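Exercise 7 asks you to align residues with tokens for two separate proteins.
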Amino acid sequence: MTGKLIIARHHESEWNKLGLWTGWHDSHLTEYGFEKSAEMGDLLQGMHIDQVFASMEVRTIETLSCMLNEMKLERVPATHSAALNERDYGEYTGKNKWDMEKLVGKETFDHIRRDWDYPVPGGETLKMVSERVVPYFLSEILPLIKDGKNVLVVAHGNSLRALMKYLESIPDEDISKLEMLFGAVVIYDLDQDGHMLTKEVRQVTSDVKA
């Protein structure tokens, strides 16, 4: 019997609140982010978690800690990996997104944020993010699920979009329609290859413009 994969995006960080492209910059959660991260833990009350994974970035670590504290789970084995880090936004890191949208126009802005293989200067495309996220999932996370373990992964909007593309077999041209929302917890049942059998979305009310 296989276990379940649970994925969650970190909640609001200080740079999210400022509207800045964060990428690999380490930005702590805001007070609102801490509050909502605890609520995300409430969504999983009563569910046993055998192993947790998070990126190396502080906002995922803080979100995960809040969730586990709210669930009253202690001593759950945790692994942190740069393979799960957010997309590197290169020269766009630290720039205000909404100023950039006005500068380049909405069409180009949407390509930058959502497309599969749209380059940013000195940074990563979503395809490049997938090339580190999916192999890590297949080698380190999926074997635990196939062994019957329930695994929680807390990561970022783009690293989770890259993973969801694989899990849900989403074509390249449709990836721009996929968003991993703040406050969402997604629970998957997977087949032996790590593809989705069932999907359940649980959501806390969140007001984050990012």
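Second protein for Exercise 7:
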Amino acid sequence: MKLLLIASTGGHLTQLLALSDWWSQHQRRWVTFRKADAVGALAGEHVTWAYHPTTRNVGNAIRNLGLAVVTLVRHRPDVIVSTGAGVALPFFVIARLLRIRTVYIEVFDRIEQSTLTGRLCYPLSDAFGLQWEDQRAMYPDGVVIGRTL
């Protein structure tokens, strides 16, 4: 299976890295920001560097939308998996158009209030993973998968 793993740096990336027992068994490519934690953690991995910041930056949102088109057409993953944040949305939009399956995992530390990216990616996701039962109140069709950390 060909995976595209997408996460902002910091805690979002840490939560995807924690799933290494699963993703290490598959062909994969990453999308994240070129920051020290990602460069170190993903040494030896195939990485597409996204544009940041993504919050309130229309220019980078447009650039990441173009990056999503190029990346998804060129690498054609079987499934995209993301823990957010904003960098995920353009990839989920283009994946929907290209009929590429998507899985979003809502982050560990948002138990009582949803994330903006989670709310935006929820209707675009083929599967929506929750780390806490309490998150089901915000995402009734989500599946509790347990904690990644």
